[in-house]
Amino acid sequence: MADFRVDQAAGLRRLLGTAGLQVITFVAGCEGVGRSVTIANLGVALARLGREVLIIDEHSSSDDISASFGMAATHDLLNVVQRESSLAQVLLRPMAGLSILPAAKAARKLGRMSLPQQQTLVDAMSGLERSIDVILVDASMAHPNGFSPFGLVSQETVVVLSGSGASITEAYSLIKKVSQAFSRRHFRILVNKVRSVTDARSIYENIAQVATQRGIATLDYAGAIPLDESLRLAAQLCRPVLFQAPESPAASAFRDLAADLQYWQQSPGEQGGVEYFLQQLLHLSQRITPKVLRV
Questions:
Q1: Any alpha helices (H) in the chain, and if so which ranges?
Q2: Residues 7-15: what's their mean pLDDT?
Q3: Distance between CA atoms of 16 and 126, rounded to whole angstroms?
Q4: Which CATH architecture does the domain made up of 28-283 adopt?
Q5: pLDDT higher than threshold 60 for residue 275
Q6: Biggest alpha carbon–alpha carbon distance for the chain
Q7: What is the mean pLDDT of the segment spanning 113-136?
Q8: Mean pLDDT of 102-121
Q9: 166 within 8 A of 30, measured Cβ to Cβ
Q10: What is the pLDDT of residue 41?
Q11: pLDDT given at position 277
Q12: Is 48 helix (H, G, I), strand (E, B) or coil?
């Protein structure tokens, strides 16, 4: 096992390329808050800043990132693990600097992969042509362990919510449950579909105050995406708003978020580097037991 871990670390180091890799998981307490559309547009904005971005998508084809680009995923990372497809066949590349890795099936089996399957996964990922600067994870709400292992080991977990009361309540409930079940103590809040920055700040401050007072977690403000008709129309056309309406308020907000994201600082306990990320992802996922996060 020790030798395997060394081999894994070497493979991931080839994949990630630099020590400056950012791994950011996006979650939501309920559907309908625009999480996947947000990730797709953020990926475009980061790629246009010269970053090499990999989006890992844990959702099925009916609700996935590829649909935001008018594309269809025909393979899954699990096909690579089972030696049925090459990684090149699975990856989608909607634009220069941005790749999408459909992984709905693989994510659900991550904790049950055999040692040879883990090695196959690492070998395949280490063969990527380009070094990755940023990994964005579109985490599923229905992971068998109750929460995505990526969300447990990533440097940042961003909770996406909207201005509705139900969305705010569900977001807080998710934060509380993940904090209690998995000891995740830091989250960022991204407020989507709001009419003003003032409203977004107020929503964030209220939820952050409650979380702090009750000792649940520390929350930081990630930003806000405005309620913008251009964003809705772009989604209907299966195009990122940065393609469809680059001068819109929503597009501007995504560019601002991408610029800020590059300077987010890691928490003191999350600076273990490449080996830490590798070992936590592939081994923690097999050690954790399923948690029921629903009331």
A1: 2-16, 35-48, 77-81, 87-90, 104-109, 115-126, 149-153, 165-182, 197-213, 229-236, 241-244, 249-261, 273-279, 285-287
A2: 44
A3: 8
A4: 3-Layer(aba) Sandwich (3.40)
A5: no
A6: 54
A7: 82
A8: 87
A9: yes
A10: 97
A11: 60
A12: helix
Please identify which residue in the block is written with the tokens 């959702």. 59
Query: Considering only CA atoms, which of 29, 163, 109 is closest in space to residue 285?
Result: 109
The ranges assigned to domains in the chain are: 28-283
- Own/partner pairs for 11-16, CB < 8 Å, 24+ apart? 11/122, 11/123, 11/125, 11/126, 12/122, 12/125, 12/126, 12/274, 12/275, 12/277, 12/278, 13/274, 14/126, 15/125, 15/126, 15/128, 15/131, 15/132, 16/131, 16/132, 16/274, 16/277
Adjacency order of strands within the sheet including 98-102: 92-95, 98-102, 53-57, 134-138, 22-27, 156-162, 186-194, 218-226
- Is there a contact between 230 and 217 (Cβ–Cβ < 8 Å)? no
| Nearest of 62, 140, 136 to residue 99 by alpha carbon | 136
Question: Looking up tokens 């999480």, which residue turns up?
Answer: 35
Tokens 């196959």 identify what position?
120
Place of tokens 């007072």: 213
What is the number of other CB atoms lying within 10 angstroms of the CB of residue 6?
A: 11
pLDDT digits (tens, 9 = 90+) for 162-190: 989 999 999 999 999 999 888 889 999 99
- Which of residues 265 and 10 earns the better pLDDT score? 265
Pairing of strands 92-95, 98-102: antiparallel
Cα 74 to Cα 92: distance, rounded to the nearest angstrom: 10
Distance of CA 162 to the CA centre of its chain: 17
Q: Check: CB of residue 77 under 8 Å from CB of residue 106.
A: yes
* φ, ψ for residue 148, nearest 5 deg: -60, 130
pLDDT tens readout for residues 59-97:
876 668 999 999 989 999 999 999 999 999 999 999 999
Do residues 285 and 170 touch, judged by C-beta distance below 8 A?
no
